[in-house]
Amino acid sequence: MMTISGLAREGGVGVETVRFYQRRGLLNLPERQGGVRRYDAEHARRLRFIRGAQAAGFTLEQIGELLTLDAGQDRARARALAAERLAALDAKIAELEAARKSLRRLAHQCAASEEGPCPIIAAFEG
């Protein structure tokens, strides 16, 4: 059993983050014991789940759904959410790769000539 600060430390977050997750319904609020709320290993497991899902790019709404699926064992919906997230990541990766390719081209053009305006600056001016 641990206090909210112990739970926060265990999850690598601040106390206000724990409270935020509680307000969002992602973490339940335990009853007071002797005037102090005590959190257990299940709270810590759930907090680690939330943090891991956030690191994978899931929104808090999606995390809430995943948490309910965790209880209901709905693997098909969990796979669908993961597929949606993968598609979004693939799109973002493609966007970043295109930006990298463009910036490399501009850097090469900039290095190739000392005359006229810098191609990098000119590209961003419109």
Automatic annotation (TrEMBL):
PROSITE patterns linked: HTH_MERR_2 (PS50937)
TM ranges: none
Xref: Pfam families: MerR_1
InterPro entries listed in its UniProt record: DNA-bd_dom_put_sf, MerR-type_HTH_dom, MerR_fam
Swiss-Prot/TrEMBL keywords: Coiled coil, DNA-binding
Residues of the HTH merR-type domain: 1-69
Highest rank taxon of the organism: Bacteria
GO MF annotation list: DNA binding; DNA-binding transcription factor activity
Coiled-coil stretches: 79-109
Coiled coil keyword on record: yes
Listed PANTHER family: HTH-TYPE TRANSCRIPTIONAL REGULATOR ZNTR, REDOX-CYCLING DRUG-SENSING TRANSCRIPTIONAL ACTIVATOR SOXR
Protein name: MerR family transcriptional regulator
Record organism: Sphingobium cloacae
